[in-house]
Write a structure and sequence with these properties.
CATH class of the domain at 65-207: Alpha Beta
Structural class: alpha+beta
Largest sheet: 5 strands, mixed
CATH topology of the domain at 65-207: Trna Endonuclease, Chain: A, domain 1
CATH architecture of the domain at 65-207: 3-Layer(aba) Sandwich
Order of helices and strands: HHHEHHHEEHEEHH
Low-confidence stretches: 39-46
Number of helices: 9
Helix content: 40-55%
Number of strands: 5
Length: 210
């Protein structure tokens, strides 16, 4: 879900949070070093935006599209869906927390995107949505200090929608381009695989040129 604002390479949550706190922009480690050495990026992106700003906006748009895709998928299957992230309930709080380093601030930034409720059994689940062009997610991308240990990570790529729990990541499992951990295989959610396939087709259309 996070990409370097300069070179557009994927970065981890930890790299993103560190870079936003220190540089007020999402940089990979290479460009964090360049920024620390005083090298400012002057290249331009779309419509004469600085390239760093353009790529950052593009990254945010990708993430928002992925979140909306998953939100609509669960809604279409009769789930109750609630936006949970603090940025959704308290507008502007993420700007307020820029540069703030504390356990509370970190936990707020890590709040899952959604709480969804299964209409068949009433059970509720934390859902964190991520877009990954590479279709990969591993434990180091989330980190050992992640506070929501019962969270499900739904990974949207250009072709598939996959899902893994934090505990599974912690146990050494991961999502790769060849793994079979598709969202439709999660028995907890009891989802219609045909509906998921339709939303995968949407993902192909939306991210085809990414």
């Amino acid at each position: 879900m996070y990409f370097c604002s300069e070179c557009n390479v994927e970065i981890t949550d930890a790299e993103y949070k560190y870079s936003m706190n220190k540089y007020d922009c999402a940089f990979c480690r290479k460009h964090q070093k360049k920024s620390s050495n005083g090298h400012e990026t002057q290249s331009k992106g779309t419509n004469d935006l600085p390239k760093a700003k353009s790529n950052f906006v593009e990254s945010m748009i990708k993430g928002r599209i992925a979140e909306t895709l998953i939100e609509e998928l669960f809604l279409s299957l009769g789930y109750s869906v609630f936006r949970y992230g603090m940025e959704n309930t308290v507008p502007g709080i993420m700007n307020l927390l820029k540069g703030v380093r504390s356990d509370v601030a970190t936990n707020i930034r890590r709040m899952p995107d959604f709480v969804v409720q299964n209409p068949k059994n009433g059970k509720v689940y934390f859902i964190e949505v991520k877009f990954r062009k590479s279709e990969t997610l591993k434990f180091s991308d989330v980190g050992p200090e992640y506070p929501y240990e019962n969270c499900y990570f739904v990974l949207v790529s250009k072709k598939h929608i996959k899902c893994i729990t934090y505990q599974e990541l912690k146990d050494g499992k991961e999502i790769t381009s060849k793994s079979q951990n598709y969202l439709g295989n999660r028995k907890e959610f009891e989802l219609d695989k045909n509906v998921i396939i339709r939303f995968c087709d949407f993902a192909v259309k939306f991210f085809d040129v990414v």
